[in-house]
Write a structure and sequence with these properties.
Length: 680
């Protein structure tokens, strides 16, 4: 058997793994012993990351909608239809009648081409991807406070930290190789662990202090910790004076968040909050770790800013084994953001509104008049489509029918489009709505790079030829551009795309495929002799001085009432990934959790006569689903949790599409639902 070193396709840990191949098929995967994240280990998804590649229902030829179904056509015909229809819509309604959804599952090179296609060929900034739905507040909140919207530190630094403050991250389920580092630090070295999460997640068992706040009250408890730290004089006065600004404003803002006041809002007992504040402030090497429990709120940006405030207050940024560490979900969500698959920035977070930046891209791409107005976000794209104002949509490898909030409205939006094309590896729930489906190569069938959660840009390598007639996403995008009359997207290899990225993107400026061998480089890496950056904001913040940005607690958009009397939160489970298109086709994973469920507290279950395995109906103001009950103390009384992987019990039929006003992320973590046992 041959073996090829590549990068895992699932979570943002970015583990290095070998794919084993035999007779043109991938037949196994196992960890790289020397990779800095995996170090000889993988989670169960990594060990099984090859199985879906060989599935017989992979899309292997272009499909065009015909008589309510799909018929196979050749590439020429499919690409002609796509380019012709997109150009017609641009001509008839203007560039902004088109939307482009890029993908955190595809490579940096492919995301770069998707945003280049949207901007250079179709002259719209309506390009976005699923980071909008997971870490958009991280990009905004950390850029505003620190000057860089990324994880400040590095996964290997978890091995030296003395304390972890983990909030809104079910780390052992979602980022297992990071979760295991935290558990090892606690068990082997006596590191302290503060867990703040409404659900009693696995890490809570190892916690020195566990605080179960009510969903959506994060600004309040973080302000409360800062109130205690300031009142007790535990803040880092010299660091604050030398390296930050706006401290007096923060001081005033958190004054009212006394432990008693915070307890009323969050239900966190005063004594726990005080202990947590003291412990965090007094421990030198303390890392904040968070994920979507913090970001997926209408106050997502404020939640992130508040964590940044807390870290600056105690001098916990700019040193090894400290920092504010957002764990990015998808394998390449960091890269898709870095590379500019966002409506307001080109690659490297260079603003589309900046004349000099646009001029630079125009020169390199040999085009004129790149659009200067920021485009539509994911949620706005679907809203405009539903209103009939957005006419054409191009999706690469995303499945919004299952992943986006208020799924019934997403379906309505897709039905309303005049033209919809998708690049996919399987006939997903979303692909069923497409006019044209273009079969894409999987991660095992192409070259490129992913950027993991610690800013490590690392190679993926082709192990086998694409199935059937499938093509790599970058090849398809290049073909579409060519047929639209643009000559600036002809590449024979993804390394050429990376070379273009580095010329235009200062944070990737010193990279090329040679330098990325074998295990990548961490940005910023501005020049060819730069070794990459392990942790950010050493000596000074990326923006100069770190800025305290005081935030005021605001309740979630939709709270329980007499009719909808439970709080619903959604998320993932260890065995599955996102909308399940790959993990549900992987027998080992699907056997463990074959379908959806709702977690409900035993006291609530008793009141509703619900037993383990009972069928229950869950309804919100937007729709209803049926699923089976899992009775567990993991969720608080009055709360339920539904994983969003399963189309037959799609949590996002229920979720609230209300968004954070700045980052435009929907509030997946709080909405009001009612529950009843299904009797027939
Ligand atoms: Fe893949 Fe994440 Fe598991 Fe590593 S921890 S093997 S990257 S899913």
């Amino acid at each position: 058997m041959a073996r090829v070193l590549t990068t895992c396709i699932y979570c943002g840990c970015g583990c290095g793994l070998y794919l084993e191949t035999e007779d043109g098929m991938v037949v196994g995967s196992y960890p790289s012993r020397n990779h800095p994240v995996s170090k000889g280990a993988l989670c169960v998804k990594g060990w099984n990351a090859y199985e879906f590649v060989n599935m017989l229902d992979r899309l292997n030829a272009p499909l065009i909608k015909s008589n309510g179904g799909f018929k196979e056509v050749g590439w020429d015909k499919a690409l002609d239809v796509v380019s012709k229809r997109l150009l017609e819509i641009k001509e008839k309604y203007g560039p902004d009648a088109l939307g482009f959804l890029s993908s955190a599952k595809t490579t940096n090179e492919e995301n770069f081409l998707m945003m280049k296609l949207a901007r250079a060929v179709f002259k719209t900034n309506n390009v976005d991807h699923c980071a909008r739905l997971c870490h958009a507040p991280t990009v905004v909140g950390l850029a505003a406070t620190f000057g860089s919207g990324a994880m400040t530190n590095t996964i290997s630094e978890f091995e030296d930290a003395d304390l972890f403050l983990v909030t809104g991250s079910d780390t052992t389920e979602q980022h297992p190789l990071i979760g295991s580092r935290i558990i090892n630090a606690v068990n082997d070295r006596g590191a302290r662990l503060i867990v703040v999460d409404p659900r009693k997640i696995e890490l809570a068992k190892y916690a020195t202090i566990y605080m179960a706040q009510d969903n959506g009250t994060d600004v309040a408890w973080i302000n409360g910790m800062m109130n205690v730290i300031i009142k007790e004089g535990l803040y880092a006065q010299k660091y604050i004076e030398e390296r930050t600004e706006n401290f007096e404003e923060l001081k005033r803002a958190v004054e009212q968040y006394t432990p008693e006041y915070v307890q009323k809002i969050t239900k966190i007992p005063c004594n726990l909050l005080i202990q947590a504040a003291r412990l965090y402030a007094k421990t030198k090497k303390a890392m904040i770790v968070y994920s979507m429990g913090i970001t997926q709120h209408t106050t997502g940006v404020d939640n992130v800013k508040s964590l940044a405030n807390l870290a600056m207050l105690t001098a916990h940024v700019g040193f090894a084994s400290t920092g504010v560490n957002p764990l990015r979900g998808q394998n390449n969500v960091q890269g898709a953001c870095d590379i500019g698959a966002l409506p307001d920035v080109f690659s490297g977070y260079q603003k589309v509104t900046d004349d000099a930046v646009r001029a630079k891209f125009e020169r390199k791409w040999e085009v004129e008049n790149l659009p200067a107005k920021p485009g539509l976000t994911v949620t706005e794209i679907f809203k405009k489509a539903r209103e009939g104002k957005l006419k054409g949509l191009y999706i690469m490898g995303e499945n919004p029918v299952i992943s986006d909030p208020d799924a019934n409205h997403v379906r309505q939006a897709l039905e309303k489009l005049e033209f919809f094309v998708i690049q996919e590896i399987f006939l997903s729930d979303t692909a069923q709505y497409a006019d044209v489906i273009l079969p894409a190569a999987s991660f095992a069938e192409k070259d490129g790079t992913f950027t993991n959660t610690e800013r490590r840009v690392e190679r993926i390598r082709k192990a086998i030829e694409p199935v059937g007639e499938a093509k790599a996403d970058w090849e398809i995008l290049s073909e579409i551009a060519r047929r639209c009359g643009y000559k600036g997207m002809d590449y024979s290899d993804p390394s050429q795309i990376m070379d273009e990225i580095v010329q235009l993107t200062p944070i990737y400026g010193g990279m090329n495929y040679e330098r990325l061998d074998p295990f990548g480089l961490q940005w910023p890496c501005p020049s060819k002799d730069h070794p990459g950056t392990v942790y950010l904001h050493k000596d000074k913040f990326a923006k100069g001085k770190g800025t305290f940005m005081p935030c005021v607690y605001v309740a979630a958009d939709e709270l329980p009432d007499d009719e909808y009397n439970f709080v619903l939160s959604t998320g993932r489970v260890y065995w599955h990934w996102h909308t399940g298109t790959m993990t549900r086709r992987t027998s080992t994973l699907n056997r463990e959790v074959p379908t959806g469920f709702v977690e409900i507290n035993p006291k609530d279950a008793e009141k509703l006569n619900i037993k383990k395995g009972s069928r229950v109906k869950i309804a919100s103001r937007r729709g209803e689903i049926e699923t089976k009950a899992l009775v567990t103390e993991k969720v608080k009384e009055g709360s339920v949790f539904v994983p969003f992987h399963f189309s037959e019990a799609a949590a996002n039929v229920l979720t609230n599409p209300a968004v954070d006003p700045v980052a435009k992320i929907p509030e997946y973590k709080v909405c009001a639902v009612k529950i009843e046992k299904v009797t027939s």
